[in-house]
Amino acid sequence: MNAFSGLDELEKSALLEIENSHELSELEAIRIRLLGKKGELTAALRGMKDIPEQDRPVFGRRVNEIRDRITAALESKISELMRAEKEARLIAEKVDITLPGKKQPIGGLHPLTRIYYEIRDIFVSMGFDVMDGPEVEYDKYNFEMLNIPTDHPARDTQDTVYISDDIVLRTHTSPVQIRTMLAQKPPIRMICPGRVYRSDDVDATHSPIFNQIEGLVVDRGISFANLKDTLNVFLKEFYGEDTVTKFRPGHFPFTEPSAEVDATCSKCRGRGCPACKGAGMIEVLGCGMVHPQVLRNCGIDPDEYSGFAFGMGLDRLANIKYGITDIRLLFENDIRFLAQFR
Ligand code: PHE
User: Fold this and answer.
1) Separation of 203 CA from ligand 1 center, angstroms?
2) pLDDT in tens, 273-293
3) Can you name the CATH fold of 111-341?
4) Hey, where are the domains in the chain?
5) Which ligand 1 atom sits closest to the C-alpha of 196?
6) Which of 148, 174, 181, 200 gets mutated to test ligand 1 (max ligand atoms within 8 A of its CB)?
7) For 272, which DSSP code?
8) Is 70 exceeded by the pLDDT of residue 197?
């Protein structure tokens, strides 16, 4: 019987083709070609009208049987291929979790931060608090209350950046001392680190932005001896036990008497080198006894209390300590430079 043997043929070749297929896309194409609306099996079913009436139910059942077999064969082949594909992927993506991880490079502290932490730790160990203040500051706090009135020559030396008539970018961290004395009663023991601004041109030794740390102590009976001792302890701790200091007379409008302090050059330990211009000593800070008028300005009675203050440039100390000859390196953040301080 021609129609029936045609079905046998179709089944045989379909199952064989499925068995030999190795691609999911190929199987999908086979499915459409055989079982789709315009597929071969549908076409065979249409041929039913050409066979004798009594054979048609058998023929129909046979077509259904072939459809079921082809569907089952496709399904089992698809799941077989998917399983193989998954296994291949697992092998390809295999990760050896016992291998050491990739190391991420660890950053280091900026030299200025290191210097600051060192200085802060020394003063904190002596009982000082750390205070903070704004970089955009009232003229009143930056100058006026520190005994620097409008016409005072000290204003010229500080190349001030004015925001308005009475607001400046602070030229030193001293206004934080004013703020502290206004806000809290003696005894006061504080340091204030921070960025300060002066309208300097940039070169190897000048920057319009630099960093200071200042300190202030106010209490009953504070004398110049306390000032000298505190700074000696600090400088020996910071530069080494064999550090020698020299207090030279100085002038600041907000302290009286005032001094400038030299310390043994940390590069040559006093023998004389280019860093200290052969002197063996290097200027490291300014200081003095808080001027009575400054205390009075802040509501502190100078007959009852006295105090001392000091200030130093952080950038300068970093340059001396690390032998940096160009201040710009501290601000450019070139990784090749910074990586040396890890
Ligand atoms: N404020 C001074 C400056 O910027 C430093 C200083 C602080 C001097 C405290 C004496 C006492 O130059």
Assistant:
1) 22
2) 887 888 889 899 999 999 999
3) BirA Bifunctional Protein; domain 2 (3.30.930)
4) 2-93, 111-341
5) 4
6) 174
7) -
8) yes
